[in-house]
Each structure stands twice: as structure tokens, then as C-alpha cells.
Write a structure and sequence with these properties.
single chain, 338 residues, alpha+beta, D-Maltodextrin-Binding Protein, domain 2, eight-stranded mixed β-sheet, five-stranded mixed β-sheet, 8 helices, 24% strand, globular, binds 2,5-anhydro-1,6-di-O-phosphono-D-mannitol, binds magnesium ion
């Protein structure tokens, strides 16, 4: 049979649509720790659930999915209906996927044992972060951390499986439901961002090898909560104002973090009178973002130590957090340490 080799069409009609998440995962398989394919599948499961959640969020306000669910979670915070929807979607995707044995979720007081005898991974997740912004059409997000279980597969889940330090994460990421939906993740070899193309139903690589600027102009804090915080915080904020830096605060950690990651800046949630240990949860908020920050060349600390080195003592433990561009976090540390 007569054949001819494929030649890529370089005319305007043959423009490249881009690299899908699937293709990226396949062609970077070697970058995945324990590259046996399960971790790749797990990321695909998370991506699928995030598409469903993205769809629900984009309809918020039209259907019956906004407003309070009528219950409080383990932290005593009122659950929104979309918090519950997102928790169901992610937990179901992780259960069906088969790679995960246990889930730690902001919305569940206890560890969910998925009863999956072949699951090698533990996932800690905040299914929908920034709940106070859901009903007012402001960006919200999902945050996840992935760990290898340390006890033998098939045996009951143990505290050491779910209470691992952040430095033991094998992958972590977030989904930002903003002006577009983005998935950003690391498997320990840099950070890449994918933008969701709704009409094609695919995530495409849009932010390759994200590098956090060494410094920046943005400082991000809920200033209303700072009276009663470490006096060093006031000193740092004063320096920011004196230096003409820009204050930006959305109140959704993922959105605030993402902006600072791209533009350069620092996010602060210190210990406050209302939250003496800080507000941000170590297992499913701080650790994932700290891993991403470091992989992108940034820094994350609680003011005393690296976030990724904090030993977790309980599932829903909180921590103060200062995260973002290295030089700004270093500068902050000179205030809170001295
Ligand atoms: P949530 O998990 O209940 O949504 O709380 C976490 C959120 C973060 O997204 C955000 O940075 C912070 O809480 C805002 O807190 P505050 O309203 O105290 O400024
Ligand atoms: Mg949260």
C-alpha cells in the first residue's frame, strides 16, 4: 500500500490546541514518584471530580445548591451545600478510582476508610475551600495532598498513615474555580498548571514549570484580625505600607495563594485572638500549598519552622502560616523572630 509519513500542518488552520493533562501525565510518567501508574490515575480521578464540582459551582445561584446545609463540620463551622456536594464528589471519585485507602477531609471529623485493600495512597483534602465566598460568586478552590500509606496494604488504617509530615507528600495540588478553572499540582518535580477548556471537557497545560518570583509587591492578610497577633506582624505590615506594597485579600486561600505565586507576594494567617493556633489546617490546606510553594522556589513557615516539617498530632490541626516569595517570607521572619 502506498503511504506517506505524517507531517504536522503548520498553517493557521492546523493550530495546536495544546497538551492535555492526560498526555502530560503520560509523557512525564518518569517524574512521578513510584511511577507505577496508580498516582497518575489518582490525579486523573481528582481532575474528573473537579470538573463535576466546577460544573456545580458555575450553576450556583440557579439551582438549589447555594446556602447553608444546616449542619456544622468538626471545626464548628457552618457547612455550605456546595461544601457537602464537593466532599461527596471527591470522595466518590477517590473510592471508585481504587488507588486510595483513606481520605482525610475538612468536612469529616474522622478518617474515611475506603476499605480498598489495594489502595497505596492516603489523600487529605479540603473539597471546597473559601466557603464564605461560595454564595457571592467569588473564587473558591479545592486543596489536596497525597501520601503513600506506610502500613501494609489491606491492613486497618493506622494513625501513622494519616498523620504524616508534609515533607512526606508524594504529590499535592489545588483547583482554582476562578475566572477559569485551573488545576495546579506538583509531584516533586516542579509545578505545572492546567486550564480547563469547558467545551472540550479537558484540562490543557497552560502554566508550564511555574516559578515563584523571589520577591513581590503584594501582602495578603485579614488585617481586621491582627490586633492581638504577634507584635512582629504589625511591624512587618507597617514595613509593607512604608514600602508602598499592595494589600490584596480575597478570603479564599487558593485564590490568594495562586495570585501571589504568579505575581510575587506573601500570604499571612498568623495566630489570632479568635484562632490562637492560626486558622489554616495543616493536613489539607497548609501542607499542600507549602509543597507547591517550595517546588516553585517559594517558602512556607509557621514563623518558627518550615511548614513541611511540622509533626501532625491531630487530623484537623491548625497552624499559623506565612507563605509565598522567599524574600518576603524571610523578611517576615526577621519580625516575628526578633
Ligand atoms: P474554610 O476552609 O472554612 O473555607 O476556611 C479557610 C479560609 C481560607 O480559604 C481563607 O484564606 C481563610 O479561611 C479566610 O479566613 P478569614 O475569613 O478569617 O479571613
Ligand atoms: Mg478550607
Amino acid at each position: 500500500m502506498k503511504t506517506k509519513p505524517y507531517k504536522q500542518d503548520t498553517s493557521p488552520l492546523g493550530y495546536a490546541v495544546g497538551v492535555t493533562l492526560d498526555r502530560f501525565i503520560k509523557s512525564n510518567q518518569a517524574d512521578f514518584p513510584f511511577a507505577t501508574g496508580e498516582l497518575s490515575q489518582l490525579l486523573r480521578d481528582i481532575a474528573l471530580a473537579s470538573k463535576i464540582v466546577s460544573r456545580e459551582i458555575s450553576r450556583a445561584g440557579l439551582g438549589q445548591v447555594t446556602g447553608a446545609f444546616g449542619q456544622t463540620n468538626v471545626q464548628g463551622e457552618e457547612q455550605q451545600k456546595l461544601d457537602v456536594v464537593a466532599n461527596i464528589r471527591f470522595t466518590r471519585a477517590l473510592t471508585k478510582g481504587g488507588e486510595v485507602c483513606a481520605v482525610v477531609s475538612e468536612e469529616d471529623d474522622e478518617v474515611i476508610d475506603l476499605q480498598n485493600k489495594t489502595g497505596k495512597y492516603v489523600v487529605a483534602i479540603d473539597p471546597l475551600d473559601g466557603s464564605s465566598n461560595i454564595d457571592v460568586n467569588v473564587s473558591i478552590g479545592t486543596i489536596f495532598s497525597i501520601y503513600r500509606r506506610v502500613t501494609p496494604m489491606g491492613s486497618p488504617i493506622q494513625p501513622e498513615d494519616v498523620l504524616q509530615k508534609g515533607c512526606q507528600q508524594v504529590a499535592a495540588g489545588y483547583v482554582l474555580y476562578g475566572s477559569s478553572t485551573m488545576l495546579v499540582f506538583t509531584t516533586g518535580n516542579g509545578v505545572n498548571g492546567f486550564t480547563y477548556e469547558q467545551s472540550l471537557g479537558e484540562f490543557f497545560l497552560s502554566h508550564h514549570d511555574i516559578q515563584a518570583p523571589l520577591t513581590g509587591q503584594i501582602f495578603t492578610i485579614n488585617d481586621g484580625l491582627t490586633p492581638g497577633a504577634d507584635p512582629g506582624i504589625a511591624g512587618f505590615l507597617n514595613a509593607c505600607k512604608q514600602n508602598g506594597r499592595t494589600a490584596r485579600y480575597i478570603g479564599s486561600l487558593v485564590a490568594d495563594f495562586h495570585r501571589n505565586l504568579l505575581k510575587g507576594g506573601i500570604y499571612l494567617y498568623p495566630a489570632t485572638v479568635a484562632n490562637p493556633n492560626g486558622k489554616i489546617r495543616l493536613a489539607y490546606e497548609a501542607n499542600a500549598l507549602a509543597f507547591i510553594a517550595e517546588q516553585a522556589g517559594g517558602k512556607a513557615t509557621d514563623g518558627m519552622q518550615r511548614i513541611l516539617d511540622i509533626p501532625p498530632l491531630s487530623l484537623h490541626q491548625r497552624t499559623p502560616i506565612f507563605i509565598g516569595s522567599v524574600e518576603l517570607v524571610d523578611e517576615l521572619e526577621t519580625y516575628v523572630n526578633g
